[in-house]
Amino acid sequence: MGAHRRRALSASFLCAALSLGASPGHAHDDPQQASDREVEGGPDERASPADPVDEARSAASDGLSGDPVSASGPGAPRVDTRTSTLAGPAETSAPSGDVLESESHGEDGEAGAGASGPAEPSGHGAKEEDGEASEEEASSNFLFRYLEGIFGMPENPNEPRFIAYPVVAFAPETSWEFGVSALAVYYANNNPENRLSEINAYAFFTLEGQLGLQLEHANYTDRDEWFILGEGRFQSFPLQYYGIGPDTPSEPRATVDELSLLIRERVLRKITESLYLGLELSFDLIGDVRFNWGEGVVPAPPNGAEGSLNMSLGLGVVYDNRHNVLNVRDGLFAELAFLHSNQAWGSDFDFTVLESDTRYFIPINERDTLAAQLFGRFTFGDVPFNELSTLGGESLMRGYYLGRFRDRHFVGAQLEYRFLPLPFFTDPFWRRFGASLFVATGVVFPGPDLPPVSDFVVAGGGGLRFLLFPDKDVYTRGDFAVTEEGTAFYLLIGEAF
Q1: What is the dihedral of CA 345, 347, 349, 353, to 10 degrees?
Q2: How far is CA 262 from the centre of its chain?
């Protein structure tokens, strides 16, 4: 219930990792990407040395491992990364013998101060200055290593990558929000023939006393024998409630204060190549619920308004031949899930959920991809309001608040064209930038019949991309979405689907 806050807010900012990344990283070609593409079923995109995707991954190959790099642009002073000090003429550094002689003279001066007059100041002040310089150098080295770790290329391109950064956001219902987001990506056994796994976490608090902890993951074991996919969320956060149905007013009917815990997990075993079968579990607890109805609104508490605990069990079938879940360039993902909640095992409501999610990715050329998604969620039985199907969020129907529309059933579709990287840049650093254009449509309805076309809502927009991990082909995205009700901005790592 509720959206991931850092993804649903209309203003969210990466305050460290992206803003500090003006200097390009150490990005060399990944020798394993050719085999990766073969695993995905697409052409070997690394066969040609002129491959624009390769060029983007080779951005900023100015030598972060020791060669001088440009600090901020063509006209900036050169920086010797081995000392993190501005490089100057060689003769500005005295030979070691001269240094020893100077120190000896300083000591002689102190010893003969009584005979020859006031002694010259000893090297104490110079040592203090050297200490300050050393601190500055250490600080510079730390910042450099931080940026290199984020934007550069590790010695072993198959080793895990990790990034953590602060997030600051603002929304009227929360005031200022402060958080920390982290992402880890890896191959099982550091073998790039295995599919790329990811773990994404976010913790936050607001000046209104709200807080939350969120976790998403998609993990493959060695040889992709097991696929473990899920999310968890604990938060004390206000929910905007607009009512139920496809024609609810544009202003929320109530703000709902609640404490919620959600766990959704799939544990799937590979049956044949790319086909998985397994168990699915959903645990959804919502408590301390209080509906704060808007002025002039006649209270109409929905089913489950007092709070509820529901545990759903079921089966899932997944076909998945994607190799990189954060940036799919070629492949197919299709999931069919059946979940049932029953009072027999402790749930407060008896209901059933059926989900279908199909995503298809078509490589247009060496760098561009056309992505399509068709999604449906259908509920049956005695369904509480927080288990109804919802429209909106940072993935499908970007631009709408998650829960702007809710009802028993939801169907939606979207298309996205991705330029990864953009074709018209020649500078290695700028070759790490990409872009996308997307459009989506969807509707909620009570069923059993499909709603009229007039009930469907439309959203669209575009965004920029930045190649964060060249060795893993992982981009961070900033999307701007437009709907008939307004706009929204999303900033996070990995593609929307």
Answers
A1: -80
A2: 20
Count Cα atoms within 13 angstroms, Cβ side, for 120. Answer: 10
Q: Contact, 379 vs 409, CB < 8 A?
A: yes
pLDDT tens digits in sequence order for the chain, 497 residues long? 444 433 434 334 344 344 333 333 333 344 344 444 443 444 344 334 445 555 555 544 443 333 333 333 333 333 333 333 333 333 334 344 443 344 444 444 444 444 444 444 455 555 556 666 666 666 667 666 666 666 666 778 889 999 998 988 776 667 788 999 999 999 999 999 999 999 999 999 999 888 999 999 999 999 999 999 999 999 998 899 999 999 999 999 999 999 999 999 999 999 999 999 999 999 999 999 999 999 999 999 999 999 999 999 999 999 999 999 999 999 999 999 999 999 999 999 999 999 999 999 999 999 999 999 999 999 999 999 999 999 999 999 999 999 999 999 999 999 999 999 999 888 888 999 999 999 999 999 998 888 999 999 999 999 999 998 888 899 999 999 999 999 999 988 899 99
Scanning the structure block, which residue is given the tokens 């010893």? 111
Residue 75 CB burial class (10 angstroms; 0-12, 13-18, ≥19): exposed
How far apart are alpha carbons 496 and 332 in whole angstroms? 15
pTM: 0.72
Please spell the DSSP secondary structure of 395-430, one letter per residue: SSSTTS-TTSEEESEEEEEEEEEEESS-TT--STTG
b/e sequence 37-50, b meaning 16+ C-beta within 10 Å: bebbebeebbeeee
Whether the CB-CB separation of 400 and 485 falls below 8 Å is answered with yes
Helix H or strand E encompassing 56: helix 52-57
DSSP for residue 222: G
- For the chain, the helix, strand and coil percentages under 3-state DSSP, each to the nearest 5: 20, 45, 40
* Under 8 Å between Cβ of 153 and 25: yes
CA-nearest of 408, 411, 357, 402 to 262 is: 402
In a 3-state reduction of DSSP, which class is residue 493? strand
Helix (H/G/I), strand (E/B), else coil: 201: strand
Torsion angles phi and psi, residue 285, rounded to 5: -120, 130
Tell me the residue length of the chain.
497
Dmax (CA) of the chain: 108
